[in-house]
Amino acid sequence: MKTLNYLIIIALSVLTLSSCKTTYYQVYRAVPSDRSMANREALVYEDENCEVTYNLWSHGGNMGFAFFNKSKENIYLNLDECFFVRNNVANDYYLDREFTQTSNVGSKSSRKKGASVALTGLNFLGLIQSNQAAAEVSESLITSSGSSISVKEKKIITIPPGTLKFISEYNISESLYRDCDLLKYPRRKQVKTLHFMKEESPFVFSNRITYRVGESAEPVQFENQFYVSEITNYPEKEVVDYESDEFCGEKSEEKYNFFKIKSPDRFYIMYLKSQNGMKH
């Protein structure tokens, strides 16, 4: 019995320690090399044919973009000529992959008096849905069917006039930046921001994009470049807050977390405090 009590105490201690781990956020601010992109609520590049919009805010920084066709013809986005470049290392957007899409539909009927028939499948939104119907019979029957389709990655993406498509593949960085002047686990009054010019920035990154307007047009190429200008480590309470969801004037009883400093030109890495004792 003493051994059992001892094991219970150890288990509760481990659970308590793991649940009390403090969360921190390393938050980055990025500046576009073309300053006109930052004169709006979003990061937007625009030419006579298209608008390309960025929202970096995510864990690791989302370098994906929304490509909107302003013209009156189809625009063909040549992924095999599009690249994500980070610190002079180029990464291909076209990776010549093959994806498998699988769908399953099953049905189960219970033929027992007063029982019900349950039908499960995908509705028109692609969501799993179950429907119930009454039945008055007395045996059991289970049937199911499935299908899979292999889809090859497209080298050229067609964007019709007046529409947009989202292209997403790479994160900016998922590793913590460490510096002797940056505390890894700061308290509120110890929060400090490192500032960088482009020449000394630890991350300079861009999308190099190639597209054509119409099938016979000459290719148009441009580059949307950014660099990290600020890095700050925050305790969770300085970044995340909690509030009730509100819709049509009615507030939910449950509270949800939201980011207080969210913006399109920022991204973050969330991390937990470790026990190695290192301050930086």
From TrEMBL:
<protein>
    <recommendedName>
        <fullName>Lipoprotein</fullName>
    </recommendedName>
</protein>
